[in-house]
Fold this sequence. Notes:
The chain is α/β, with parallel strands linked by helices. The protein is about 45% helix and about 15% strand.
Amino acid sequence: MEAKHLDVRPVHDGRVCEIRLKRPPVNVFDIEMLAELERALGATTAAVVVLRGEGKMFSAGVDVADHVPEKVAEMIRVFHAALARLESLPAVSIAAVHGAALGGGCEVALACDLVVIAADARLALPEIRLGVFPPWAAARFPRRYGDAAVADLILTGEEITGERAHALGLASRLAQPGTLDQALATLLGQLLRNSDAALRHARRALALGRASTDNLLAVERLYLEDLMGTEDAKEGLKSFMERRLPVWKHR
């Protein structure tokens, strides 16, 4: 598949599709890249999909410039379409995280079935510091990962290490610094000794087990219709783009 910001390649005799995020310097997602990711996920027939980031980190998140009022609805639609595609894949999905997975990058990583993370990597949902919050994480992650851990990430915006993420159950495998490739190879070896058909059906069973009442639409409305109309949301995003501290009015 031709893509400007992704490197999509079959490996392991086509049983694995590796998708590398390649929007330097820190793989920030814009609307075009999110649409590419959704198409790449939809096109794969592999039994396992691996998401990785090129360069120094997995992804620093979604481009703040796409959060402005004239773009935010489209950005949310395209971002959530990519995450929904990832969530509904028949393939087992793996995020291999090095460097950092921040904001939307963290949401993409934690939307995968399995997360292999470097111990010295950083994980964060820092949107609250810009006067907003991550809708997908708020809607989907508490049931899957536990309310306390997710609430702490969303409400403080603080970064945690890969080691801490693993201890909290946010990552399934922990790799010591410099050993991420080895840890990923070990996991793939364990998966690929199994039947592709069995993997697909087991993955579907897990998805059914995680299913709950769909509250994402309600959270999207809260984000777009209520939050984005606040003065502080506008100020937080504006201050980030102007590289200054926000001045909150608390309304």
